[in-house]
Amino acid sequence: MPIIPVDIAGRPYEVRVGAGLIARLAEEAGARLRKPVVPIITDVNVHKAWGAAVDASLATAGKSAAWHILPAGESTKSWANLVAVVDGLLALEVERGDHIIALGGGVIGDLTGFAASMLKRGCHFIQVPTSLLAQVDSSVGGKTAINTPAGKNLVGAFHQPSLVLADLDALDTLPRRELAAGYAEVVKYGLINDPEFFAWCEANGEAMLSGDRAAREYAVAYSVAAKARIVAQDEFETTGLRALLNLGHTFGHALEAETGFSDRLLHGEAVALGCVLAARFSARRGLMGADEAARVAAHIAAVGLPADVRSLGLNVSGAQLAAHMLHDKKVDAGRLAFLLMRGIGGTFLTKDVTLEEVSAFLTEELEG
Ligand SMILES: NC(=O)c1ccc[n+]([C@@H]2O[C@H](COP(=O)([O-])OP(=O)(O)OC[C@H]3O[C@@H](n4cnc5c(N)ncnc54)[C@H](O)[C@@H]3O)[C@@H](O)[C@H]2O)c1
Ligand SMILES: O=C(O)C(=O)C[C@@H](O)[C@H](O)[C@H](O)COP(=O)(O)O
Ligand SMILES: [Zn+2]
């Protein structure tokens, strides 16, 4: 079983990737579960698919779950649910030294992690990511957040989990659309700094999505290790290194805001389209060849992810879409910050993009 260490200074933790981890949850978590009742935050879909396995595992250790079951979907990352989760944890008399468990996709992980960061000024939490996206990205690195009407992830905290259990069995119950959305964050790692991994994705992406276990294990372990290397060097996104993980997200978050953080466009789908737009924008600036940008779009489209912003049918101008970017957390002294590419694997951070330039680009993309 691959075990990837995340070397956060003073607070290292493991990401375990393998089969049967949810069925062995109590054993894997071990002494972290100090009390007979274990607080677990999840959503309705995940509870239906995996709740019984968790209950059975806890029972073998003489424990039971105090379930907090939320609705599924991006709109769950809200103030109202945060309050409900925190109040629920307080009612359970959770102490600082206790661990709460996030069982679900990135929505549950982000919300639970944020609740853990503030409960008693910070209690422990274990990430049990059940979506591909959560296994390859959101469960690792400690970014937690909710959305607000002003934008995506605008209120949150950096709070690292103490353990991550990425069970490959969970991917067997995940719908294909969600698998593909998570795959966008996998491809992202190749686009950031590893052209060979992007080529691996081109060769193996479809097999991985269709259920190839070895390919899934490789993709999850590779992605976690790639993210862990970056986060260990720039936990709080201060040096510009961690910002590389935001490739595709400046465009992507604007598209998510424009579609109302709804099922109309999943986060991973927005990132996929955002990576295509970042590549096309980079090509427009002469940073990469149009053929390379087309290669990125072709792979995204080949796995059924959106690669053309016109396919969303947005009734919005380039300027309106670009305006969302002023809320981006990378904005510094009012200047936009973008991840652009000098070719596949050549992502870099730049602050020389103006709102006018990106508006003009988006107008061209929307009008075709
Ligand atoms: N913190 C970070 O570093 C980070 C990184 C990337 C994304 N994110 C956030 O993650 C969120 C997206 O995460 P997501 O794509 O996992 O979405 P999600 O949590 O909404 O899960 C996707 C859907 O799949 C269902 N599901 C999850 N696991 C399942 C399983 N094993 N079987 C059946 N159904 C299952 C869920 O109920 C949901 O309907 C976004 O809010 C995004 O902003 C955070
Ligand atoms: O971990 C990071 O750093 C990332 O940027 C990973 C992203 O995939 C993720 O969507 C993250 O939540 C976006 O961060 P934000 O700071 O732009 O909200
Ligand atoms: Zn993301």
TrEMBL record:
Molecular functions per Gene Ontology: 3-dehydroquinate synthase activity; metal ion binding; nucleotide binding
Identify the residues that bind NAD(+): 106-110, 130-131, 143, 152
EC number(s) on file: 4.2.3.4
- Ranges for domain 3-dehydroquinate synthase N-terminal: 69-180
GO CC annotations, alphabetized = cytoplasm
What InterPro entries does the record point to?
Dehydroquinate_synthase (IPR050071), DHQ_synth_AroB (IPR016037), DHQ_synth_fam (IPR030963), DHQS/DOIS_N (IPR030960), DHQS_C (IPR056179)
Coiled coil where? none
Q: Where is the 3-dehydroquinate synthase C-terminal domain?
A: 182-331
Requisite cofactors: Zn(2+); Co(2+); NAD(+)
Q: Where does this protein hold Zn(2+)?
A: 185, 249, 267
Keywords of the record: Amino-acid biosynthesis, Aromatic amino acid biosynthesis, Cobalt, Cytoplasm, Lyase, Metal-binding, NAD, Nucleotide-binding, Zinc
List the Gene3D superfamilies hit by this protein, alphabetically.
3.40.50.1970, Dehydroquinate synthase-like - alpha domain (1.20.1090.10)
Q: Which reactions fall under this protein's catalytic activity?
A: 7-phospho-2-dehydro-3-deoxy-D-arabino-heptonate = 3-dehydroquinate + phosphate
Where is the protein localized? Cytoplasm
Q: In which pathway does it act?
A: Metabolic intermediate biosynthesis; chorismate biosynthesis; chorismate from D-erythrose 4-phosphate and phosphoenolpyruvate: step 2/7
Q: Name one GO biological process term.
A: chorismate biosynthetic process
Q: How many cofactors are bound and how? A: Binds 1 divalent metal cation per subunit. Can use either Co(2+) or Zn(2+).
Q: Does the keyword Amino-acid biosynthesis apply?
A: yes
Stated role:
Catalyzes the conversion of 3-deoxy-D-arabino-heptulosonate 7-phosphate (DAHP) to dehydroquinate (DHQ).
Q: Member of which family? A: Belongs to the sugar phosphate cyclases superfamily. Dehydroquinate synthase family.
- Could you tell me which NCBIfam families the record lists for this protein? aroB
What's the protein called, per UniProt?
3-dehydroquinate synthase
Name of the coding gene: aroB
